[in-house]
């Protein structure tokens, strides 16, 4: 696409901001209106959709923001009992990323127009989910979590809320980390009773073959010691000074092209619109916790799906009663759960080899309940922002939901 040139220019700008550590305040908030208005008013209702800002509190006190798009542009189309869909973003971004393309192109609005009751989740620590019943983002304890806590608290909080409000089984769409946390949860026997079906886009479980150069470097250097040392139990703010320093070091390595950070992280996305990318960069990246990044780095290095490793035998013993962190065993996922998986041939984070290893776990899955789509020229970000993702991916997701929607 012709957008690639504009793309690198934008990337250079981002890099300047990131590396220079200038301009942006502590929380990396860049644009004004969205901040005041919230996601519904700034990105959804302007197109004629009904959208409600909702707050869901986790058992460990985080107040998460969720957007419910309960009606499409054509009203509710006479459907009284709509099926709910939860849409979960990946790491270092928030729910806004789903909404950057036109209503005809983005997943939440397509689902709403198709008569689904859509719920967009925003993980703890991202721009609209930075509140807690007792803690502040400036407290260390606010950032004392990894993706284990997203499995243990964030997901169940959102699922329970949607289930209570709708009294209906739920369809789920996850991208990237949004797939990993559900896989982990299902492997522990959770969520199954609340689910109609699950769609995994750019699935992540194993990360050993990840090809993104900057990701590989990050995985090598983000050790548990960082949580106690340099970075501390703290916010991992991609636009902050500390992370900027790290990026500076990583960017000097041969083979790392920091002039195109989005590609450096996600692979060569085939189908992004440069205007959408610009919008993306105004809204993202978002913060997560250092501990979460360290846990992801462990997932890359260890080649297994396990709980957070404290990096010290005594700490692991104290937290788990075992020397090694317990594994999430994907073989426990019920064989009759409806699962759709779509993965791309150019995805630098969700490498084809790693996805194949994940697919191995589903060899015994009911064939009627399992669908796999492979898109040769897709990379990681195409799944959320690709101009043709509507025709290529989302239509397939919706067909799958229709097939597996009745009880
Ligand atoms: C972080 O949480 C662990 C429990 O998972 C606790 O042992 C530790 O004291 C906490 N640290 C901080 C700074 O809150
Ligand atoms: C790219 O985005 C711009 C601005 O939203 C829009 O006018 C244009 O039609 C988009 N192009 C494609 C191919 O979707
Ligand atoms: C995972 O679970 C399966 C059965 O659900 C079991 O056969 C296998 O031994 C388990 N693997 C590990 C590593 O615990």
TrEMBL record:
Coiled coil: none
Keywords: Hydrolase, Lipid degradation, Lipid metabolism, Signal
Pfam families named among the record's database cross-references: Abhydro_lipase
Positions of the Partial AB-hydrolase lipase domain: 44-101
Signal sequence region: 1-28
Active site positions, chain numbering: 176, 347, 380
GO terms, molecular function: lipase activity
GO biological process, one term: defense response to insect
Matches recorded under SUPFAM superfamilies: alpha/beta-Hydrolases
Family: Belongs to the AB hydrolase superfamily. Lipase family.
Family matches, as PANTHER family: LYSOSOMAL ACID LIPASE-RELATED
This protein's name: Lipase
Species assigned in the record: Cucumis melo (Muskmelon)
């Amino acid at each position: 696409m012709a957008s690639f040139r504009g793309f690198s220019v934008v990337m250079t700008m981002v890099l300047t901001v990131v590396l220079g550590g200038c301009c942006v305040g502590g929380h990396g908030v860049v644009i004004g209106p969205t901040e005041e208005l919230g996601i519904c008013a700034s990105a959804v209702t302007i197109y004629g959709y009904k959208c409600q800002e909702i707050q869901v509190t986790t058992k460990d006190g985080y107040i998460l923001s969720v957007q419910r798009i309960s009606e499409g542009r054509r009203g509710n189309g006479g459907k009284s009992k709509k099926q709910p869909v939860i849409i979960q973003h990946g790491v270092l971004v928030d729910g806004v990323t789903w909404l950057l393309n036109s209503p005809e192109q983005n997943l939440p609005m397509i689902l709403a127009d198709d008569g689904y009751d859509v719920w967009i989740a925003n993980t703890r620590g991202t721009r609209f989910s930075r509140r807690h019943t007792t803690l502040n983002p400036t407290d260390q304890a606010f950032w004392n979590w990894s993706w284990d806590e997203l499995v243990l608290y964030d997901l169940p909080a959102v699922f329970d809320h949607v289930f209570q409000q709708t009294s209906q089984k739920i369809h789920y769409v996850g991208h990237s980390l949004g797939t990993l946390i559900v896989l982990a949860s299902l492997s522990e026997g959770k969520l199954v009773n609340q689910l109609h079906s699950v769609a995994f886009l750019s699935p992540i479980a194993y990360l050993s073959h990840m090809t993104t150069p900057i990701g590989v470097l990050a995985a090598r250097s983000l050790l548990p010691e960082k949580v106690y040392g340099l970075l501390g139990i703290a916010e991992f703010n991609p636009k902050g000074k500390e992370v900027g320093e790290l990026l500076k070091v990583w960017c000097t390595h041969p083979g790392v092209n920091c002039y195109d950070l989005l590609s450096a992280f996600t692979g060569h996305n085939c189908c992004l619109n440069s205007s959408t990318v610009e919008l993306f960069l105004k809204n993202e990246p978002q913060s997560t916790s250092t501990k979460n990044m360290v846990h992801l780095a462990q997932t890359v290095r260890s080649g297994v799906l396990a709980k957070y490793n404290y990096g010290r035998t005594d700490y692991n013993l104290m937290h788990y009663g075992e020397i090694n962190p317990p594994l999430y065993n994907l073989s426990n996922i019920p064989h009759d759960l409806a699962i759709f998986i779509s993965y791309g041939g150019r995805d630098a984070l969700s490498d084809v080899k790693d996805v194949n290893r994940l697919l191995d776990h589903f060899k015994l899955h009911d064939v009627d309940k399992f669908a796999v789509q492979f898109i040769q020229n897709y990379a990681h970000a195409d799944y959320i922002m690709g101009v043709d993702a509507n025709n290529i991916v989302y239509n397939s997701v919706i067909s799958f939901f229709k097939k597996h929607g009745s009880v």
